[in-house]
Every structure is written in structure tokens, then in C-alpha cells.
Design goal:
Elements: E1 5-6, E2 8-16, H1 22-34, E3 39-44, E4 53-61, E5 72-77, H2 83-89, E6 90-99, E7 112-116, H3 118-123, H4 133-136, H5 138-149, H6 153-163, H7 168-188, E8 195-196, E9 207-209, H8 211-221, E10 226-229, H9 236-249, E11 260-263, H10 267-279, E12 284-288, H11 290-306, E13 310-318, E14 324-328, H12 333-337, E15 347-349, H13 354-371, E16 374-380, H14 381-385, E17 388-390, H15 408-411, H16 460-476, E18 485-487, E19 493-497, H17 502-516, E20 521-524, E21 527-528, H18 532-539, E22 543-548, H19 554-562, E23 570-574, H20 583-595
Helix pairs in contact: 1-5, 1-6, 5-7, 6-7, 8-9, 8-13, 10-11, 17-20
Length: 596
């Protein structure tokens, strides 16, 4: 065996879809996390339910780099359908574990081969009822792997207790399979690969969750009162998390719920209800993905023009059309930027880590009500449904910003209230909400042409003035959206990106400096419209690589259109195949451009 490789490898498990491997894979992930080792987990699911192959990849990195890697050091296969592919994917010098009932040829001699008699082992577990064997059989490979790489079995038990919420019987049954697998491996397998785990303390004080759950909790702490939604991959679990946590966190003194969640009959109904609730004065939101957003477009145009605050979470998947529902992308940016027909501008928040999913969950409501417009929080399937480490979430310290809402006493002080009249020069009018009993509070909400007092108008001058005011509101938004995050200072070479490409870019920057001596400054944009810091970054760099996970370079196009005088500085690094980006891709793409 060559020199040990400690806490720096990937583990990929290949199983048939629907085989119940999720518990086993998440147990491995959480056990390693509980050993204090930085780790991330990514599902690669088929987009149907026909039993096609599914993979789960765990990145172990003592250095804390958690983006997907192209190399697969350890591969576990329990699926004859993907056997040949999984075998071929193992990095030279790596390890291949497989269920020994799969009788397929293995010609490779450059990797360690470990056959596992999973079915035989599970049959021999004492006192395990026959009808439960299939349920716990996947935990056998957890035990075998634990024995071979040094995974702490006490941490495995803690991970199972977390998963089963402390229920003793399922924990005991699964641990019996873990111990059986470990004991078999100790007696029958000789370690021939170099990969080991060693406990660290780099996860102390951290938690592990997914972006959809984080966004749901942030929305709750932001005061969400109404949720209208319709199921769609990969956004469904966001609404499901709201349904799980709202009843626990949002009740009055008598135990009555202070919120409403409605699963509508389709996306049109969902967004219609959501906008209606926002118009009625509630903090209102929905969650969807590209196809659902397409169906919601006309309603969202109404909300923009009628100036109704609402929050829309878009958990992006591969398009166009139905596309690849279980693959990830950053391909909705152009669509959302001007969603709806006619002249529109959208306020978009772009979380770049799981903690920001929480933070932007509550901030989105403040911004939507301050600006009286739809606010879109855009993440992707990689953030939304995969497990990530993060700092614990912090309760918002600032009071809710309800914006320019007028109550009865306020209307006594304003003599010339008009629903769409700009009194402050920032493009944002004042509004009232149903229930205000002042005689001047009422107005008629319409999606047609209207004047400052919400009266129907086809006057060209009135129309033009109203549209210019809406444009001014988009400029005002720069005061309220999150500023970008900047890393590095002084290099002529800059990188601009957003969202879930961040882990790959951070690791890619490290590799470029270590391997090629190329230092880069990096700005992660967190919102559109951009704040002034983005313009300053552009002016201060000779070459700017805009890295994103879509085919056409959508952020590149957005920045070019708004900064044409600097267009020659922008270099698009855009690629999308449905898989999360890797540091190797970032490094290779930029170095190739630098050398040309």
C-alpha cells in the first residue's frame, strides 16, 4: 500500500433508485461530519421513478474544500446496471467495493477490489426479522466502509440517532447491520488502498443542512404569513420544510396557527393566491422552479405593475422545457431579470452559501415590502437539496421593514395620498392595505394603465411617467439589496460569479495560485441590481472572468449590457452539464484563457 491519504478523497455510492440507500449515505456523511472533518454530500438522482441508477457522492476535505471533484477515489456499487460505469470511474490507486452477487468481469489491476457479500451478512445478523433485512441491508456497506477507512462507529450511532430522532429500535437494528459489516470486513478484507479518516475539530460549532430548509427557516423568522405553492422538483422540499416548521414555531398563545399554507391545484393558482395575500398586507411567498415560473409569469407581471410585494423562491434545474428536473444549473437569470412582457426589471437575491439562504429568506420580505415589488431568491438544485456545512443561523437583529404602509393615523398627516404617487423621489409610493378604515385609504388595483391615484388612464404622458417611476424604483433597490463579497486585492485579474459556483471558484483560485502562480481577485455578486461595489471592481481590473453554470453566460450578458464601455474586459466562463462545477474546470478554463 502506498503512503496514506488522510481526509482528502471522495466516496461515491451507486445504487438503484428507490433502494433505500438515502439513510445509509446520509449516515456516512453525518458520521464524518461528527468526526470534525469538513464534508459535503451530493445526490445524483434520475429524473424518473423507473429504478434507474442513482449516485451519492461525499467529498471529504481536511482543507475545507467542498465542491464536487471529478476524481472518485472510493466507489461502492450495489447496482448491476451501473457496475461497468462505476468500475471505470475509480481513480487509479483507488478502491472499488461491490456486492459480490453481481457477476460481471473486473479487468482492472490498478485499483483495490473489495467484494462484499451484503445479502449473506444481513441474513446472519442475530435476531433480525426476515422482513426487515432489506430495510437495513444498506447499513452493511456502511459498516464495511467504516472498518476500512477508520470511520468512528460511535459517530455512526450518533448520526443514526439524529436521523431517527432518538428512536431506539430503528437505531439498534441499523447499528446491528453496521457492526455485522465491520466485523466481516475485519475478518475478511485486507486493506490495499491508501484512504483513511482521522478525527479533526474543523466542524466544531457548525451545523449541516440543505438550502431549501435554510430558506424555509429564514422565511419563518422573516414573518411569513402566507405560502401558496405547487409541487415541483427541486423546490418542493422548501415548501415541505415550511409545513414542518411553521406549526412548531408560529402559533399564538392559544396554540392557533398564525399562518396559512395552501397547496394549490397548479402554479397559476399558487402565484395568484400568493399575490392576493401580498396585496392584502401579508408577508407572502411561493417556491417553484423554471417550468413553474414560466406559468407564473403573467401574474408576476401584474404584481410588478400593480406594485404588490411578494417573495418568489426559484430553485433552478436544467431547462429548457421539462429538461432535467434532478440536475442543477444557473440558467434562469436572464428569464427572471425581465420576467413578463413589456418593460420590467426584477430584484433578484443570489445566496452564495447555506447561511445566506437563511439570511436572504427573511431579508427578501423586507426588500419586497420596502420596494413594493416581487423579489426573487434564486438558488439551484445543488444548494437546495444537497447537504452543506454552515454556521448556525442567527435570529434577525433588525426589526421588520414593512416599507411605506399607511395606517389611519398616517393618512391624517398626508393630504395628497395617491396609491402610485411618488412623494419622496425614490420611485416608491405609499400604500394602504385592506382593513384600513380611513375614507381616503381605498383604491382600485388594476393591471391596466393608471395614474397616480390608481384611476384608469390611457394618457401617453401618464403612462410614460409611471414607467419611468418604476424604473427609478429599480435604481433605489441598490440601497437595500445585499452588497457583494470580495476576496483578494491587487491582482489585475478578477473573477465575478454568483451562487453555488462559489466553492469551486474558491478551490480553483487556490489551485491556480499554487500550480501556476496566478493570483486572482474574486467578487461574488449577491443581488441584481448590482450595488456600486460591482462597478468599482470592474473598473479596477484589466481582465474579468465571469464564471457561471449556464450555456450562454447570462450574468456576463447582464453585466455587458449595463457596462458596455468595459465589455472588452469581460471573459465568459460558462458551462452547464447538469452537474455541480469543479475546481478543476474553473482552473483549466481560466488558465487556458490566460495562456492565449
Amino acid at each position: 500500500m502506498t503512503e496514506q491519504v488522510v481526509n482528502d478523497f471522495s466516496i461515491t455510492v451507486g445504487t438503484p433508485n428507490g433502494s433505500g440507500s438515502s439513510t445509509a449515505n446520509n449516515t456516512i456523511l453525518r458520521a464524518i461530519f461528527k468526526m470534525g472533518i469538513p464534508v459535503s454530500g451530493k445526490n445524483l438522482l434520475p429524473s424518473n421513478i423507473q429504478g434507474l441508477p442513482t449516485w451519492y457522492t461525499i467529498r471529504v476535505s481536511g482543507q475545507g474544500f467542498l465542491a464536487r471533484r471529478e476524481d472518485q477515489e472510493i466507489v461502492i456499487n450495489l447496482n448491476a446496471q451501473s457496475f461497468a460505469k462505476d468500475l471505470a470511474s475509480v481513480k487509479s490507486g483507488g478502491a472499488f467495493y461491490y456486492e459480490d452477487s453481481i457477476k460481471q468481469p473486473i479487468a482492472r489491476t490498478d485499483i483495490a477490489i473489495y467484494p462484499m457479500p451484503v445479502k449473506k451478512i444481513v441474513r446472519e445478523i442475530p435476531d433480525l426479522p426476515a422482513n426487515l433485512r432489506d430495510l437495513v441491508s444498506n447499513m452493511v456497506y456502511v459498516g464495511i466502509l467504516a472498518q476500512m477507512i477508520g470511520m468512528d462507529k460511535e459517530k455512526i450511532e450518533l448520526a443514526l440517532k439524529f436521523h431517527f430522532k432518538g428512536k431506539e429500535k430503528p437505531v439498534a437494528l441499523n447499528m446491528a447491520a453496521v457492526h455485522a459489516g465491520a466485523q466481516w470486513a475485519a475478518a475478511n478484507l485486507e486493506k490495499k488502498d491508501p484512504y483513511f479518516l482521522q478525527a479533526m475539530n474543523k466542524t466544531d460549532g457548525l451545523i449541516m443542512t440543505d438550502g431549501n430548509t435554510a430558506g424555509a427557516l429564514g422565511s419563518i423568522y422573516g414573518g411569513v404569513q402566507f405560502v401558496g405553492w405547487y409541487p415541483i422538483t427541486p423546490a418542493t422540499s422548501l415548501a415541505e420544510a415550511l409545513s414542518e416548521y411553521l406549526p412548531k414555531l408560529r402559533s399564538d398563545a392559544e396554540g392557533k396557527h398564525t399562518f396559512a399554507i395552501v397547496q394549490a391545484e397548479d402554479e397559476l393558482a399558487a402565484i395568484g393566491m400568493t399575490i392576493g395575500a401580498g396585496w392584502g398586507g401579508l408577508r407572502s411567498m411561493t417556491s417553484t422552479s423554471g417550468p413553474g415560473l414560466s406559468l407564473m409569469t403573467e401574474y408576476l407581471g401584474l404584481a410588478y405593475f400593480a406594485e404588490v410585494p411578494v417573495v418568489v423562491w426559484d430553485v433552478v434545474r436544467m431547462g429548457p422545457s421539462t429538461g432535467l428536473p434532478t440536475r442543477t444549473a444557473q440558467s434562469d437569470l436572464s428569464f427572471i431579470s425581465h420576467i413578463g412582457h413589456g418593460d420590467t426589471d426584477s430584484v433578484i437575491l443570489l445566496p452564495g452559501d447555506i447561511n445566506e439562504c437563511f439570511e436572504f429568506g427573511w431579508k427578501a420580505f423586507d426588500i419586497a415590502e420596502r420596494l413594493q415589488t416581487p423579489v426573487y431568491v434564486v438558488i439551484d438544485m445543488d444548494f437546495g437539496m444537497n447537504q452543506w456545512m454552515t454556521e448556525p443561523f442567527r435570529y434577525p437583529e433588525t426589526p421588520m421593514d414593512r416599507g411605506k404602509i399607511l395606517w389611519e393615523e398616517d393618512l391624517e398627516k398626508i393630504t395628497d395620498f395617491g396609491r402610485y404617487k411618488d412623494l419622496d423621489g425614490d420611485g416608491i409610493p405609499y400604500r394602504t392595505v385592506p382593513g384600513n378604515r380611513h375614507p381616503r385609504s381605498a383604491y382600485f388595483t388594476r393591471g391596466t394603465g393608471h395614474d397616480d391615484h390608481a384611476k384608469y388612464s390611457e394618457d401617453p404622458n401618464v403612462w410614460h411617467a409611471n414607467m419611468e417611476r418604476l424604473k427609478q424604483k429599480f435604481q433605489t433597490a441598490r440601497q437595500y439589496v445585499p452588497q457583494p463579497v470580495l476576496h483578494g486585492e491587487g491582482s489585475p485579474v478578477g473573477i465575478i460569479a454568483f451562487g453555488s459556483t462559489d466553492p469551486a471558484i474558491e478551490e480553483g483560485r487556490y489551485q491556480m495560485e499554487q500550480e501556476a502562480g496566478l493570483k486572482t481577485d474574486y467578487m461574488r455578486v449577491r443581488a441584481l441590481p448590482c450595488t456600486p461595489e460591482v462597478g468599482e471592481f470592474i473598473r479596477n481590473h484589466e481582465r474579468i472572468y465571469i464564471v457561471e453554470q449556464n450555456r450562454d453566460g447570462q450574468l456576463h450578458a447582464w453585466l455587458t449590457a449595463r457596462n458596455p464601455e468595459y465589455a472588452t474586459r469581460f471573459i465568459s466562463i460558462a458551462y452547464s452539464d447538469g452537474l455541480p462545477p469543479t475546481a478543476k474546470w474553473v482552473k483549466t478554463a481560466i488558465l487556458e484563457k490566460e495562456q492565449n
